[in-house]
Recover the amino acids of this structure.
């Protein structure tokens, strides 16, 4: 694990008794595959987030906000967005988290909620 960004697999959490087996599996799998909480990054930290379809570049602005670029329609030029978090494609969201194997969700000032294809890689560019 990269200590500077926190990207990597931390210790796996225990299953939560009030969640279904599927939800517990997804939570544990997200910890195994790795990712980063925006709150753990310093302002100005730069990431490349590669999804199945697009390579994004993010610069952490603090407060769950990033400057994002990379998508030809939503962000061909850097635009400030609010990162909601990552999901497994359903309604359960891991807040302010960018995780491998998950879909990044962010609020765009023009397009409202944008959901990416599945994240395949996260790289620290700082």
């Amino acid at each position: 694990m990269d200590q500077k960004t926190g990207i990597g697999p931390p210790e796996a959490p225990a299953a939560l008794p009030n969640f279904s087996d599927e939800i517990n599996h997804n939570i544990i799998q997200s910890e195994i595959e790795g990712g980063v909480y925006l709150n753990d990054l310093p302002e100005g930290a730069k990431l490349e987030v590669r999804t199945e379809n697009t390579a994004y570049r993010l610069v952490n602005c603090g407060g769950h906000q990033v400057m994002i670029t990379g998508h030809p329609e939503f962000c061909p030029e850097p635009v400030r967005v609010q990162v909601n978090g990552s999901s497994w494609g359903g309604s359960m969201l891991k807040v302010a988290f960018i995780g491998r194997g998950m879909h990044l969700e962010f609020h765009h000032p023009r397009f409202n909620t944008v959901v990416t294809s599945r994240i395949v890689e996260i790289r620290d560019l700082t």
The chain has a mean pLDDT of 86.
